[in-house]
Amino acid sequence: xxxxxxxxxxxxxxxxxxxxxxxxxxxxxxxxxxxxxxxxxxxxxxxxxxxxxxxxxxxxxxxxxxxxxxxxxxxxxxxxxxxxxxxxxxxxxxxxxxxxxxxxxxxxxxxxxxxxxxxxxxxxxxxxxxxxxxxxxxxxxxxxxxxxxxxxxxxxxxxxxxxxxxxxxxxxxxxxxxxxxxxxxxxxxxxxxxxxxxxxxxxxxxxxxxxxxxxxxxxxxxxxxxxxxxxxxxxxxxxxxxxxxxxxxxxxxxxxxxxxxxxxxxxxxxxxxxxxxxxxxxxxxxxxxxxxxxxxxxxxxxxxxxxxxxxxxxxxxxxxxxxxxxxxxxxxxxxxxxxxxxxxxxxxxxxxxxxxxxxxxxxxxxxxxxxxxxxxxxxxxxxxxxxxxxxxxxxxxxxxxxxxxxxxxxxxxxxxxxxxxxxxxxxx
Length: 428
Description:
By secondary structure, the protein is of the alpha/beta class. The protein has two domains: about 45-315, Aldolase class I (TIM Barrel, Alpha-Beta Barrel); about 335-425, no CATH class. Helix content is about 40%, strand content about 15%.
């Protein structure tokens, strides 16, 4: 249990916050009330990483297969059990699939197979050692995505033929099953004369999973929950439901969470949100939201998330923005008026979880705002006491004067710089 400082009323704190058994986080008691959230799932959720495929659409990202293999090893060590390793139609990405298997990793490797060239895609995936076929593009609105199959396969096309699409999908499912591969299919548009027939064909055809897309990132959470429930009602409990959400409106996390609440079993996600346009649901965010806010197990080692996201940033050459939730440089950083509460009352006054829970660190940035709060009860005075040092008001003013000189050249100072100033002023 977390230690609650004597300056706080323990009884009052526990009326509002619920701490986990290891003292890693504190969530509102309201989050756990069934009258507030009656649909918190009692099951585990599969986290399926799609970074290797989605990131190929990200401008400027071109890691080598060797770099990606390092990241795959880290994903496995972190507890992720499934990845989409790439496109079965691209040789370099098939080579990466083979590298993952040859390296002895236990990850379930999914190969993305274009429905428009499914025969060659499945053959390539099998040759590359993939464990599963991920083929969600059968019912795509655009005829272009049907490739050489022709315009009849795009449901926005004037000559669309649903029976041809479903017959072809059945042949693709059979081909994957003949190779003993798990297969995920998808794209059942919410159009009455297509939806029921498509899902019925997928289930009867033997699909193991059905993927639900918000591929333009324009579903609301309410819509996403509705769509997942419609799928669940249509396919029953035997077929697993997977969701794949994009972040064009910043709703990919909310939509993924609502999907899980509504019955989804698997969440597609990517490290640091890496993908084209505005990205996809970030792995580190969905894992922490499920584990911390909803109490849903993901099997991921939370303490490895920071190092995992840093490695992804290095591999893809894309910096993590400072304000990025959880893993950004500022995620556990404090400056100004909140420093006093942090030093005196505890981390849970302003945070939900301990920084160390994910391999991060909390740190204070001393800005001019912090120095405006003078006196023996201000943040600088509290900091010096935390250092175990005795001082008087005159010495404190000397610390302020020295810090103003530090801040004259830039707008902040680190905790280490303040400590150096304190030791110099106090002579110890």
